[in-house]
Amino acid sequence: MSDQTTRILTAVSGAQWNFDAAHPEAANGVKVLIGLPGFYTQTKAHDPNVENITHGAPGVLAGLSCLRSKDHTSLRYLQGVTMYTHDGGAADSIYARYDKDWWWWKKYWLGQ
Q1: Model confidence over 6-53: pLDDT tens digits?
Q2: Which residues contact 11 (CB under 8 A, 6 or more apart)?
Q3: d(CA 22, CA 17)
Q4: DSSP per residue, the chain
Q5: Number of separate domains in the chain
Q6: How crowded is residue 38: how many other Cβ atoms within 10 Å of its Cβ?
Q7: pLDDT value at position 95?
Q8: Angle between the 53-70 and 2-13 helix axes, to the nearest 10 degrees?
Q9: Owning domain of residue 74
Q10: Left if phi > 0, otherwise alpha if psi is -120 to 50, otherwise beta: which for 14?
């Protein structure tokens, strides 16, 4: 998580390439929201024993600390950190699914 935090923020800001002509500092208001995993169900791809906030948050903090000591520009692109949950999307899923529970958001807020 530390590596992912620093890489995405330096890439978005342009610092990864020293703000060269092809990668100038972003000026379009882009922000990064980092997601911490909160998996509920063991699957072939996910293990809730390690993919959780307890393991993810220290990594994000370490990445931010690293940037704080050497790259203040990239830190400006952080919107925040949140948790996402997922249990595989099975029919008996205990978490809301877009097609059944959240579709109204797009229709109501975006008029689509």
Answers
A1: 999 999 999 899 889 998 888 888 999 998 887 777 878 778 888 888
A2: none
A3: 9
A4: -HHHHHHHHHHHHSGGGTT-TTSPPP-S---EEEEEEEE-S--SS--TTTSSHHHHHHHHHHHHHHHHHH-HHHHTTEEEEEEEEE----TT-SS--IIIIIHHHHHHHH--
A5: 1
A6: 17
A7: 59
A8: 50
A9: 2-110
A10: left
Under the banding of pLDDT at 50, 70 and 90, the label for residue 2 is very high
C-alpha 1/C-alpha 61 separation (Å) is 9
Q: Which residues contact 101 (CB under 8 A, 6 or more apart)?
A: none
pTM: 0.71
Distance CA 19, CA 11 (A): 10
Compute the distance between CA of residue 88 and CA of residue 42 in angstroms, rounded to an integer: 9
In 3D space, the residue among 61, 71, 68, 66 whose CA is nearest the CA of residue 34 turns out to be 61
In this structure, the number of other CB atoms found within 10 A of the CB of residue 101 comes to 11
User: Do residues 65 and 1 touch, judged by C-beta distance below 8 A?
Assistant: no
